[in-house]
Amino acid sequence: MNTATAEPTTTGPATTGPGVTPPPKPTPAASLPPKTLTTYQPLRAFTYSMDYGAVLALRTWSVSFTQSWSSALMRGLYNHEFGNITLYVGL
Questions:
Q1: Residue 74 in contact with residue 43, Cβ under 8 Å?
Q2: Which of 68, 63, 59 is nearest to 91 (CA)?
Q3: How do the domains of the chain map onto residue ranges?
Q4: What is the pLDDT of residue 42?
Q5: Which of 37, 60, 63, 81 is the most exposed, having the fewest neighbouring CB atoms within 10 Å of its CB?
Q6: What is the pLDDT of residue 23?
Q7: This prediction's pTM
């Protein structure tokens, strides 16, 4: 059984020795500028919501309209409003 050991070889540029400058050290976290925190607007203590609509029916046909409205959950934001129109056909 032959147990020969391979000698290390270098394939890239030299990293140590005379005339070789070491790579720069990473900057410590203390020297970095502080991160600014972004805060959200405060939540409202009370919010409001309202749903309303109308239905028009004739024999087996009907058309309905619904509308939903809610106030903003955070100060400085917008209200939310959406609607729906539905056509029912009885067969």
A1: yes
A2: 59
A3: 51-91
A4: 83
A5: 37
A6: 73
A7: 0.46
DSSP result, 69-80:
EE--SBTTS--E
Reported as a single tens digit per residue, the pLDDT across 29-79 is 656 666 777 777 788 889 999 999 999 999 999 999 999 999 998 888 889
Q: Alpha carbon of 16 to those of 12, 19, 24, 29, 38: distances in Å?
A: 12, 8, 14, 27, 45
> Phi, psi at residue 15, to the nearest 5°?
-110, -10
Distances (CA, A) of 59 to 20, 54, 56, 88, 89: 93, 17, 10, 11, 9
Cβ neighbors of 77 (< 8 A, separation 6 or more) are 41
Copy the structure tokens of residue 44.
């409202």
* Residue among 65, 45, 46, 70 nearest 55 (CA): 65
Return d(Cα 91, Cα 17) in angstroms, integer.
Answer: 91
Q: What residues have CB less than 8 Å from 18, skipping those under 6 apart?
A: none
